[in-house]
Amino acid sequence: MAKAKVLTAQADDFPRWYQDVLAKAELADNGPVRGTMVIRPYGYALWERMQAEVDLRIKACGAQNAYFPLFIPQSYLAREAEHVEGFSPELAVVTHAGGEELAEPIVVRPTSETVIGEYMAKWIQSYRDLPLLLNQWANVVRWELRPRLFLRTSEFLWQEGHTAHTTREDAAAYATRILREVYESFMVDVLAMPVIVGRKTAAERFAGAINTMTCEAVMRDGKALQMATSHELGTNFAQAFDITYLDDQGATQHCWTTSWGSTTRMIGGLVMGHGDDDGLLVPPRLASIQTVVLLVKDEDDAATPARRLTDELVGSGIRAVLDDKVAQSFGRRSTDWELKGVPLRVEVGPRDLAEGQVTLVRRDRGEKQAVPLSEAGSRAASLLDDIQHEMLAQATKARDAQTSEVASLDDAAEAAQSGVARLPWELVRGAAEARLAGRGVTVRCLQRADGSVPDDEDEDDLVAYVARAY
Amino acid sequence: MAKAKVLTAQADDFPRWYQDVLAKAELADNGPVRGTMVIRPYGYALWERMQAEVDLRIKACGAQNAYFPLFIPQSYLAREAEHVEGFSPELAVVTHAGGEELAEPIVVRPTSETVIGEYMAKWIQSYRDLPLLLNQWANVVRWELRPRLFLRTSEFLWQEGHTAHTTREDAAAYATRILREVYESFMVDVLAMPVIVGRKTAAERFAGAINTMTCEAVMRDGKALQMATSHELGTNFAQAFDITYLDDQGATQHCWTTSWGSTTRMIGGLVMGHGDDDGLLVPPRLASIQTVVLLVKDEDDAATPARRLTDELVGSGIRAVLDDKVAQSFGRRSTDWELKGVPLRVEVGPRDLAEGQVTLVRRDRGEKQAVPLSEAGSRAASLLDDIQHEMLAQATKARDAQTSEVASLDDAAEAAQSGVARLPWELVRGAAEARLAGRGVTVRCLQRADGSVPDDEDEDDLVAYVARAY
């Protein structure tokens, strides 16, 4: 029986497919104020799992969570010249509060370098207070003219890390550690997304940074998505906010600071990086629901083994739920769980049960297999492992197929219409980078020939990844 | 040796003591914008533990987390008359964004009944969609003229639950369930705070509610602190936002909604409910650090058993850390951990170790006991249990000692200068409630004689708890 398609096909209209998935899998809705977003429970559960996994890795790198105010005096932003220039067009400004006009307008934080800089300056006295490693989970606001759910919204949720160090080397090493041990590790090992890790060009840096490093993912339509960034801020903010320390000789020195962030945009990346014409695909390690036990019909006491199997799965540490809403058709429920990308379904029905069996269905391959009821629990656990690995392998294959090695700027611009192009950085740097940008193609990042992250964009033999991007 | 006091004594100046503790235990700082707050890592770790425990209980009651926008169109608030009147004086208003003046000013959410009401109306079609049980963790803004860290800040963090039901009974039962199974359970079992649970008078209700229920705690200075509230909203918001459903006869009905919240104010309650002249006391179940292993001196290889013991404690599930910063004096470090209220210290020093011993120090009683190193782990676990129970017992004793049974309004006003007064509600209701308020004393809540929560303030024989309050 051919299934009626509930989504626009990716090949027909990828942006429309994306909107369809968000709506039908109940991930998010547009908010009432331009560019804002309502994250629905199923979407928020993905975010909670992302938070848990990222937070674990951040704490393992020694950073502590704190919370700084939403409201920032407008004067703070002005203290770092590039920073204020970068963010001014996107600011939301509070001019009235408590029934009165304010003497100084207040900015709703677009990011917290400035306010955190102010407190670092208070808290840091000597080299013994360093490194100071802070992180916060918060909402930020950047007014968007062309909003798109999860990808670019006027308000989004994120974590922002802010650290201060005694030396440039120490700051650089920490920014790199976060890039690798938090972001890349999370994206590869949990999201099953084989991100391209590299250095941004000067043109693409964060406003106020001396170096921005990035994890870039390739979406199924061939566009790139910046998934997270880690910045060396040099002493720019330390000079603007007097973040100094006494060194072991008693001399006053400026700190070297970093910042790094990942946002709810990762949910958009997950959708467009793994999704297919049947909907979302959530990798098992991320999934808030790893397995759904689907009661086909409530006949011949089929509900009892379905409930028992769910309990067994939960007891063995699998995030499993029971769907026994038999008032809705089995086909409809089955399609809904597919849409939501739950990695594994266990169908429990009277016909199978009569033979002592249940049916396991993998979301990634769509394969069905009947297994004895008694083995369903252990089979589910090993299938979830398989799916996790297979999703990373498939995504890696897809990324490589979407990446072309080219030798000229024209070929790069051409290849970037449907994927990512790799070419020598020397062909792009300077005026050529701006020409590419004029054709909607940007340098996503630079790598050394061996795939490592360069210390400088002036190194020899660097490779540029260029693409259209979200 | 008498210790130099690092805090103002509670008896000398309680508000000053409170400020001292927040600063010296590094819980929080004032933010740069009036009334805002910086929550420092140790303070935020308390909040993370509160979130984890409250979130667990909310999910056990079937509610799902979601996220709604920070920005609310000003027109939304106006739709519910009491609500807009209650919140208007406290609003922060965004008038400019993206470099332009906005056509309609935007309010920074003071609470989310209105915006969530709008989406409930979209999502609810029939009785099959009910109950709809939502919660969000978020920041909210209520402009404060007399801010006080954690207790009243212009921005604070909280969870706000919002639910919709088919009947008044179902809504009332759920609001009560949250009050008991989330708030009271968390406060009594985790915070070790014996809260008084009751119904607010009409004068003290949430703006737009038909019933507000509360958990009130008694601080060590005898004032009350509202720790969390749960509201029945009747059909007020359902009418304002068209939250309707089709019942099983196909007729359109208004939903009955509830909302309920708990905030970072609970941190202030924890400090003032348990703290003493040596600082904070954190109950073990809440503590982010339950046990600190304090290396006295780094001599005779004392660091090795200290590290091994810390690992053993962590391995057995105790949140333990090692303090081996022997460059600072032992006395100073010891005082700092006391200030921070870590429930149990284990002092590991060469002299004790020579006799195969370490010293355990309870924060609540200040008692020290030497125990064999090999038994330290198991003793620590059982002492933490003891401390948890003892803290609740002590707090209950203190609350009861601070509560007077009185028979007249004058006696109530008098008793409320140093504690809580209990008296018949019939002596207070009507004009007398306003007269009390004129003397700085409010009705914190109403209970039945048996301590249960009344369904109505017109019931006979109700008891009123009155006090000064934060």
Give me the secondary-structure topology.
The structure is a homodimer of 470-residue chains.
Chain A: H1 14-24, E1 28-30, E2 37-39, H2 41-60, E3 64-65, E4 71-73, H3 74-78, H4 81-87, E5 92-97, E6 100-108, H5 113-123, E7 132-141, E8 155-165, H6 168-189, E9 196-199, E10 211-218, E11 224-232, H7 236-241, E12 244-246, E13 252-254, E14 256-263, H8 265-274, E15 291-295, H9 303-315, E16 320-323, H10 330-339, E17 344-348, H11 350-354, E18 357-362, E19 368-372, H12 376-401, E20 403-405, H13 409-415, E21 420-424, H14 431-438, E22 442-447, E23 463-467
Parallel strand pairs in A: 3-7, 15-16, 15-17, 20-21
Antiparallel strand pairs in A: 1-2, 4-6, 5-6, 7-8, 8-14, 9-10, 10-11, 11-14, 12-13, 17-18, 18-19, 21-23, 22-23
Helix pairs in contact in A: 2-6
Task: Offer a few descriptive terms.
BirA Bifunctional Protein, domain 2, 470 residues, homodimer, seven-stranded mixed sheet, alpha+beta, Rossmann fold, 3 domains, Translation Initiation Factor IF3
* Structural shape of chain A: globular
- Fraction of residues in β-strands of chain A: 25-35%
The helix content of chain A, as a percent range, equals 25-40%
Q: Would you count the extended β strands of chain A for me?
A: 23
Number of domains of chain A: 3
